[in-house]
Amino acid sequence: MSKTKIDIRDLIQEVLLSLRKQPGCAGVRNVVIDELDTDDEPYNWAVVAIDSGLSGEQESIAGLRAIEPELQARYELLPIDRAKG
C-alpha cells in the first residue's frame, strides 16, 4: 500500500482530528511532530509532544498510542524545510 504524502501542517491536523476522537482526548490542544531520519523504521515521523489541554495527560498518551501506528502507516511526511522561518 502506497502512503499519502502530507505536509507537516496537514499531518498535525490529521493527528489532532483522530486523537480528539479517542476517549478522554476531546480537549487535546496541539501536538508536535518531528521528522525522523532513519531507515530502521517503516515511517518517517513521530509525535514527540502533546499539549493535553483540558484532557488528562495519561488519556492523551493512551489515545496517541492507539492512533499513531495506523496514521504512520497511512502518511509519509514531506521533507520539512528547516530554512523557512
Q: Could you characterize what this model shows?
A:
The structure is a single chain. With about 80 residues, the chain is of the alpha+beta class. It has one domain (about 5-75). It contains two helices and four strands, in the order E-H-E-E-H-E. It has helices at about 10-20, 55-75, and strands at about 5, 30-35, 45-50, 75. It has a two-stranded parallel ribbon with strand order 1-4. It has a two-stranded antiparallel ribbon with strand order 2-3. Helix 1 (about 10-20) packs across helix 2. The mean pLDDT is about 95.
Topology pattern, helix = H, strand = E: EHEEHE
Please state how the strands of the largest beta sheet are arranged side by side: 1-4
State which percent range the strand residues make up.
Answer: 15-25%
Give the number of DSSP strands: 4
> What number of structural domains do the residues give?
1
Oligomer kind: single chain
Biggest beta-sheet profile: 2 strands, parallel
- Provide the structure class: alpha+beta
The number of helices is: 2
First-last Cα distance: 34 Å
What is the molecular shape?
A: globular
**Gyration radius over CA:** 13 Å
Give the SSE map.
Elements: E1 4-6, H1 8-19, E2 30-35, E3 45-51, H2 57-74, E4 75-77
Parallel strand pairs: 1-4
Antiparallel strand pairs: 2-3
Helix pairs in contact: 1-2
List keywords for this structure.
2 helices, 85 residues, 22% strand, two-stranded parallel sheet, globular, alpha+beta
